[in-house]
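lol ok so funny story. i was supposed to be doing the assay writeup but got distracted and ended up predicting the structure for this chain instead. priorities right. anyway since i did it might as well share w the group, maybe its usefull for someone
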Amino acid sequence: MAQSIRSKKFARQLVAMSIEEDRVVPERVSAVLQALDKKPPREYKAILRAYRNYLKVEVAKREAVVEHAGPLEESAQKQLAAFFNDTYGRTITIVPKENKELLAGFHARVGCDTYEYSARQQIEELARKVASQTI
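and the output, tada:
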């Protein structure tokens, strides 16, 4: 069933109420859900689905999931955080995640944006350059 424009707009307003100082605040989310539960609006389930989806997007926009090979040093995390903060103009939290499949480097995701600086990516880029220069 398609969600109405009204449900989506209301869900966006609820998300706006759940954010404080550029962060999703769990206490506010809980308060919003309690208020909805006490007096369920029309299209209650559609509003809850839209609210959940918009919250996921908001959290993802404020986190950088950094997959890395081996340990990720604190100084590297600070450099990445500074880069992402400057790039997006908001505070980005680094969420390190070790990935055994990476040989070296990292793969970072902020919302829908992906940044890759891994050995695989560098080798593929080098292979493309060599292939384009063959005689």
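The domain at 63-132 is CATH 3.40.30 (Glutaredoxin). Strands lie at 19-20, 23-24, 63-68, 93-98, 105-110, 113-118.
back to the writeup now i swear
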